[in-house]
Here is the input.
Amino acid sequence: MIRRSVAVAAAKLTGGLSRRLGFGGGTALPGLVAERIDPEIVSDMAAQLGRGSVLVTGTNGKTTTARLLRGILRSSGLSPVANSAGSNMMRGIAAALAESATWTGDIRQRDRRIGVFEVDEATLPQAVSALRPRAIVFTNLFRDQLDRYGEVEYVGGIWRETIDGLDAKVTVILNADDPSLAALGRRAGLRTLFFGLEDESLAIEKLEHAADARWCSICGRELSYSAIYYGHLGHWRCEGCDTSRPGVEVGITSIETFPEALSLTVSLPNDQTAQFKLPLSGLYNAYNALAAAAAASALGATNHDIERGLRHASATFGRQERLTIEGRDVEVILAKNPAGLNEVLRTITNNGRSENIVFFLNDDIADGRDISWIWDVDFELLSGSLKNVTVSGIRAWDMALRLKYAGFDTFDRVELDTERALRKALTETPEGEPLIVVPTYTAMLDVREMLARWAGKKAFWQED
Here is the structure.
């Protein structure tokens, strides 16, 4: 008890000092300090959450899915505890728990508190062991940070081992449209809930070059698709062993797209239906909303809770976040791997207008040092859609070369300094027109901080 109190107090002091001195939002370091003092702080404090915890993991969509889920749970009267700034290692979870507690390490109103934690793909085993969650959401499995993870099979192996050790009471919420995740659901004795898109109106004609799960996990034969949404997500089956996409308990039966929103009809268990307009665009956000709805349903939320929570959703920092600067609408869209960026480009081009865009490509540790993934991105989708383009970031020249091969000569559009690149892009964007900023992760943190300051908006760690 004394050790926990000291650890929480140290975390709070560290976080406050970090923010005051301008070192950051105190989303990770306080947790690291707390864990050094009390290595059991996460499991100890998680046990105080009267409604338990749910974990959200996957390659893309973790932050947005967790945010949407928190909105639904608030609509149902609960009070989530979360690492909402996206610090998804154990130190980030520890920091979030410490921040939610009193100085003595006690969490108040325990009967209303539920943990909603975004978890890094490779951190999942530690998080499961410490938090003992009620449910785990798996959004998708794509290539990402190749120098850290290698190929997707490495991450899949971590997840399989984690699932094999789960308590039988844990609900595993899986994307049925992802063959890699559907394979996880075949583990013996597992309590599963599958979600997926049922409406085929937005399906594309063929698998993208960036598709990863092309072969059957049982017999190795190439999968066939009756509907493809993006990456390798879709309605799939193996003609060799007759393995196929599992039936879904939570599905989107109707989807209508708008430039800045999605109109969705979602089927839920027990013949319930939720209908709402989600103020986010892109098929990937339809999946994020679907994953959140599935998790909320598994946790006991009603269709009305789901509708209210998703109808009043807002974008997470840097993920379709919109800011107004000097009479221009600036939209920041994070992109960090081929599947995700392809869908971002498709969403942009679906607007049917010429766009003002600035790309930022970094190769810091959190981005992944290997930037070869940009050659698997279909930048050719932008043909006829670019009005003004600027290229920046640590690896700006690599991005300019990739765009050159896609038919866009941008070598004279490279500006390595972040502020000058943004100023250049803003100046060249006519007043009243939007500017789209597409950065990788570490670039997004710098770009978003700068744009938020110009727009008079809060720092990302102050928002939820």
The two ends are 30 Å apart (CA to CA).
